[in-house]
Write a structure and sequence with these properties.
heterodimer; A: 316 residues; alpha+beta; Beta-Lactamase; 2 domains; 7-stranded mixed sheet; 10 helices; 56% helix; B: 586 residues; alpha/beta; Heat Shock Protein 90; Rossmann fold; 4 domains; 6-stranded mixed sheet; globular
Chain lengths: 316, 586
């Protein structure tokens, strides 16, 4: 066991990374520099961070739609190269009429999940003698695509098409010299996975290293998972609370104060056999219009909160 | 996303005149309370506008300098007004509830609402207080509630200070802040303090109008700040799925892939491609001129560049406020927009001469936009429309109506006035179709509109002259909608903007976002080629069949409000609302 590394991870101030605005980039840098470089060393070629923001219902990406990534200095890959590759893949997906992303297939639609999926460029038999409930190894070819969909229990028909397209893309002139992609997914117990890594290496990882990596990544990603979940939970709790406040005040202000007196007035008119005057009818109309728009507003706010956080950030 | 509104006429007036609400909220503490006992003093710099309940709105407004109160940007448009009312309603309720004796002592309750420029930012700061002495312990308690937030660490609602919390939600919404801010920094979003040790004062920020976003450019931070404070934003890149809140968008190359992959529903209809010298925009006049050019360009695209736009304003007499504000506006003789302010009896104008004038203009391939107080020109318009309906827009109006407010309370600055004139003209030119069974039913009950001493006109016909198409039930029954008939009707009317009720889509089997997206893609094919936008509206929040970030959405109340009522109908207000609609996320 690499005690030094375990200690470093244990004492790392993850909380401060998690609350930062550019969470994705900071996190992958931490994982890349502090963990992957130490455990994988020269075999490491590249890594993407996969993070699903449950609160916003979005994958964490940068302003150009690119996943946060880590690239060791020695590999010398420029941002533009990564972006170009990303765009190339998008084009191929469009051309093949594939709408579901690789990560969506694995994170959303897999009914069976294990922490590691290893995509191997060369044919293999078994990977590192780890049990198949920990690791699933497939080849980056059509057969591998079929196997991946089957073994993960994905029933979405288009998943095979997605895997096939992505594997083809990875195998033909990819921007990194890779032989293995270690695809880490967490958590495996919940229906929807939210965080993970895809680590590109030029060589197979040693068994012990992979076990250490599994422990460390499980520890980190469980923290992240909890953070993302709590964020989503608090956001939805707040939305519910706001809806409760507005519903309660709607009942209290326009309801028991406004409407109650109005109903009493109308009842008095009925009792005395009098019609509403034009002015009274106008007042009634104004009030009802107000109440109607309020109801519409409450309905909208409970389904959609219009926000422009960038506006305030510009003025800080 | 953000709609520019007249704070006095669009937001304050409906609240101030809401007798049943104001009195209802006070009666349980002060049974004899009357709405006439409240005076609202709106202030910007040294200018003040005083409004209170009155039977004659025109008299009230005409004695005040409404234009001195600045315009505001409201997220969510018409429905977003309610965020203001969350604040005003609870402020009023708490004022009465906690200060009964002090309120009773005063024969008149004076409430102040001061609008202060938050320098070099896109916000106004609002200060709201009443001239009613309040114990400072109330202020301490409110601050405690605001600091505590809305939910606790376990996500449970903290059950106290409901009114204060709702005010906080309103303030958060009006500044476009994420809802989390209401919980985490409530006392910064809504500030509460004692004013002169006597009065409880609330302070919060609201948006200034959001005019123009320029993407693909860079500028010095100082210049950017300066421009933002005037509603002009510059961004070199836009984040993924960025929702443009402004009315106009300029991109250096509209066809570039970076911009085409950005869904159109997230951008305004008024988008342009041009190169700019950003530094010139520092001059306020230059930036106004740019917006005028954009409006002019948009109008040219709608009416075909060769034609001229004749804006004919026909007040009933020279005493009407719209006559006073537009009569002296100097127009460039080379402008593609010509303004004619015509009152019968002045300069030998009469009904026959005006009819000949319009006839001559449309025969020369000009497009006439006619705003007609009391609808006195109706017969002439009907006659001319027989041959030239595509070259006419006619909107009758009366005093105290939404349209008379739009035309009467305008900026003092000539450039701003001209920009408004272009905006009204473009709103007039846009052909809007509304497919909603409720609106159809309301208007199909032989609703007739009459303004002042003018003639009666069937509402649905009147709206048609305003280029606002609502099918009659015999044309297209929306209660039992048929997909093919809807398609035929849209092809026959070829609108620029179509707003359809989510419930109709449901009924014709478009139950998933994908179904709806396919439907909208096929439907835009038969819309007018110059501008095409399909909007979904609903009164139940965002329904599940609305495709996220792909089709603009607007609340039902907004569409209905500016369409079915004689006094509230307004093509300009409706179009502004529809133009501000964007793709949404559930």
């Amino acid at each position: 066991m690499n005690h030094k590394l375990f200690h470093r991870v244990l004492t790392a101030d993850l909380a401060s990374v998690l609350t930062k605005h550019d969470l994705g980039q900071r996190l992958i840098e931490f994982i890349g520099e502090e963990i992957l470089e130490h455990l994988i060393g020269d075999k490491l070629q590249f890594a993407y961070l996969l993070l699903y923001d449950l609160e916003k219902n979005l994958w964490v990406v940068d302003r150009k739609g690119l996943l946060p990534y880590y690239c060791p200095l020695r590999v010398k890959i420029e941002y533009e190269q990564v972006l170009q590759d990303w765009e190339k893949l998008s084009e191929q997906m469009k051309k093949n009429n594939v709408s579901l992303s690789f990560r969506d297939c694995i994170f959303r639609f897999a009914s069976k999940r294990q922490p590691w999926i290893v995509i191997s460029r060369t044919p293999h038999k078994r990977h590192l003698s780890l049990k198949s409930n920990v690791i699933l190894t497939v080849n980056s070819n059509e057969r591998g695509a079929k196997m991946l969909a089957k073994r993960l229990g994905i029933t979405v028909k288009s998943a095979f098409k997605t895997f096939k397209t992505v594997f083809k893309h990875l195998s033909e002139g990819y921007f990194i010299e890779w032989n293995y992609i270690y695809y880490f997914v967490t958590p495996i117990i919940r229906k929807r996975a939210v965080s993970g890594l895809s680590i590109f290496t030029n060589k197979k990882l040693e068994r012990n290293k992979l076990i250490e990596l599994t422990y460390i990544l499980c520890y980190i990603f469980q923290k992240i998972d909890l953070y993302l979940l709590e964020k989503a939970f608090m956001s939805s709790a707040l939305h519910s609370a706001v809806a409760a406040i507005m519903a309660r005040n709607m009942s209290h202000n326009p309801g028991s104060h406004g409407l109650a007196y109005l109903i009493a007035e109308i009842e008095e008119k009925i009792r005395s056999g009098q019609a509403l005057s034009v002015e009274e009818a106008k007042d009634l109309k104004n009030f009802l219009e107000y109440a109607k728009a309020r109801m519409d507003f409450v309905a909208e706010v409970t389904t959609y909160w219009r926000e422009m956080p960038w506006l305030e950030q510009l003025t800080l | 996303m953000v709609r520019t509104v007249n704070f006095v006429t669009d937001i304050m007036l409906p609240f101030v005149l809401n007798r049943k609400l104001i009195e209802g909220l006070a009666i349980s503490e002060i049974p004899s309370f009357k709405v006439e006992q409240v005076k609202w003093v709106l202030q910007h710099n040294t200018d003040k506008v005083e409004i209170g309940f009155t039977g004659n709105i025109d008299n009230l407004l005409n004695t005040q300098n409404i234009s001195a109160i600045p315009l505001m940007g409201i997220p969510g448009g018409f429905l977003g007004f309610q965020a203001w009312y969350l604040i005003l309603e609870n402020f009023w309720r708490n004022l009465i509830k906690h200060n009964v004796k002090n309120v009773e002592k005063n024969s008149m309750v004076v409430i102040h609402l001061e609008i202060v420029d938050k320098q070099k930012t896109p916000f106004w700061t609002i200060k709201l207080w009443a001239e009613i002495e309040t114990d400072k312990r109330a202020c301490e308690e409110i601050n405690r509630i605001l600091k505590a937030g809305i939910i606790d660490a376990e996500g449970k609602l903290i059950p106290e200070g409901w009114g204060t919390k709702e005010m906080l939600v309103g303030a958060c919404y009006l500044k476009g802040l994420p809802i989390m801010h209401a919980n985490e920094r409530g006392d910064q979003v809504l500030r509460c303090y004692m004013r002169g040790d006597k009065y409880l004062c609330y302070e919060f920020d609201v948006m200034k109008p959001m005019e123009l976003l320029i993407v693909g450019y860079e500028a010095e931070e100082d210049l950017q700040k300066n421009l933002r404070s005037r509603g002009i934003y510059i961004m070199h890149h836009v984040p993924q799925d960025f929702i443009v809140p402004t009315e106009y968008l300029i991109m250096p190359d509209i066809a570039h892939e970076e911009w085409t992959s950005w869904n159109d529903s997230l951008k305004p209809i008024k988008r342009f491609s041009r190169s700019l010298d950003i530094s010139k925009l520092e001059d306020n006049n230059k930036s106004l001129e740019l917006l005028i050019q954009l409006e002019s360009e948009f109008a040219q695209s709608l009416i075909d560049g060769k034609n001229t736009l004749c804006f004919i304003l026909h007040p009933a007499n020279p005493g009407d406020p719209e006559y006073r504000v537009w009569e002296n506006l100097k127009m460039d003789s080379n402008s593609k927009l010509q303004l004619f302010v015509i009152v019968f009896g002045i300069d030998e104008w009469n009904r026959e001469r005006l009819q000949e004038f319009i006839q001559e203009k449309v025969s020369q391939q000009n497009v006439c936009v006619i705003f007609d107080r009391h609808g006195e020109c109706m017969d002439a318009v009907i006659k001319i429309a027989k041959a030239h309906s595509d070259k006419l827009f006619w909107e009758p109006y009366g005093g105290g109506t939404q349209t008379s407010f739009t035309l009467s309370h305008v900026p003092n600055d000539d450039r701003k006035k001209l920009l408004l004139l272009w905006r009204i003209s473009n709103a007039a030119l846009l052909k809007v179709a509304i497919l909603d069974e409720r609106i159809q039913q309301i208007l199909s009950r032989n609703v007739m509109w009459r303004y002042g001493t003018g003639p009666e006109i069937p509402a649905i016909e009147c709206l048609r002259f305003m280029r606002l198409f609502i099918p009659r039930t015999d044309e297209l029954n929306l209660e039992n909608p048929d997909e093919d008939k809807i398609h035929q009707w849209i092809c026959a009317n070829r609108p620029h903007i179509l707003s359809i009720h989510a419930g109709i889509l449901d009924k014709i089997g478009k139950k998933t976002p994908d179904d709806v997206l396919k439907w909208t893609s096929s439907m835009v094919e038969c819309m007018d080629s110059k501008v095409k936008r399909i909007i979904i509206h609903s009164g139940r929040g965002i329904p599940t069949n609305v495709p996220e970030l792909k089709v603009p959405f607007v609340g039902y109340s907004a569409v209905e409000h500016y369409t079915v009522s004689r006094d509230l109908k307004s093509k300009y207000a409706l179009v502004q609302e529809l133009l501000s609609a964007r793709g949404v996320k559930r």
